[in-house]
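Troubleshooting log. The previous structure file for this entry was overwritten by mistake, so regenerating from the original sequence record. Sequence copied from the archived sheet and checked twice against the printout by T.R.
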Amino acid sequence: MIAQLKLSPPCRNLARAGGRIIHLVLDGAGGLHDAATGKTALELAHTPHLDRVTRSAACGQLELLSPGIKPGSVPGHLALFGYDPLKFHLERGVLAAMEINFDLRDGDIAARVNFATIKANGHISDRQPEGISTALARRLCKKIRTAVERDFDGEYFLEPVGEHRAVLVLRGSNLAADIHDTDPQSNGVPPREPEARSVAARGTAQLLRSFLAGVHAVLDDEDQGNAMLLRGFQRYTPLPTLYQRFRLQGICIAQSPLYRGLSRLLGMDVTAVPDHLDSAFDLLARHYKEAHNFYLLHARVAGDEDADTDLARKVAVIEAVDRHIPALLELHPEVLVVSTDHSTRVGIAGHSWHPVPVLIYAPGTHADAVEHFNEAACRRGGLGLLPGKLLMGLALAHATRLSQFGA
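Regenerated output below.
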């Protein structure tokens, strides 16, 4: 269950007005030194414009979760938004629903779906078939909805998300989300049965076993996508929004549906999907100074296996972002935050637990001696090593959005 936040005294210590905040997230830009060059992607990249900002900013590092813990993309972003990711836990089901802007209601049970292919012996041959297009997933969802009836007092929804992915939502009474994933996360083995993790979930697990049996019977004649794997069960409980917590009316500019969905979950508006990096910055300029005072600009430096392991590509994306910094500064944001959401290890796909660099640029900032935006330089910055969940408070303070605490 998603934890609910009770507004604490600091959250009531908000000014009624203040400046605009732009947060530029370089997704996965942080990293470890490459063995061949001895440098990270940020150290290798030529970033004269970002370095100019850095020399007038307060810099440091973010510990997004806790020492030694590798943050996923969602916990990393939650921390950047000022939500403690150890209290606000989001499973893939709710996020998949938010990716397509599905109208989740309080109490709904959501699960992420993979349409997989199984062989005659019942073993999975491909749990993420590349041949399954979004159009095919849409047809499979419609086929199931037409043929498989619900076996409980309520209703279910099955909607495609993208390619082989979909989302299953159960709505009704006496449903529970304490269900083990049926996705074994590997090929060559059979799907797992939905097993309850609590006594309260036994009835829901039985309903899912019956439902999946019907689904697999309906899909039996399909060459690809003849099985459904479920993961990330969660009961949806609305989170407090950015406006409720910080009086921020946010807007998200991101290509990835994951971050667009997360932003919706926090009550932010979402722009059209940018085609590329240039159009993302164009969208920022187009929507700037509307009704918003918080702008999330997400630039994907890494985030899939190819990007994680391709040092040259990471450097090229960072340098492409740098070329847009002058235009971003021409918007005259009262606060500019630049950070990454996790560290990646060049040559080894996946996130790492290492702290990531961050800068805050705003009028009145006590600039430190840091001259370059990279891991080694920011380690010496005046912000020090900062818990990620505290970054939003500093951004609000620099935007003069916090009033005095106490007499």
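The longest strand covers residues 109-118. Archived copy saved in two places this time.
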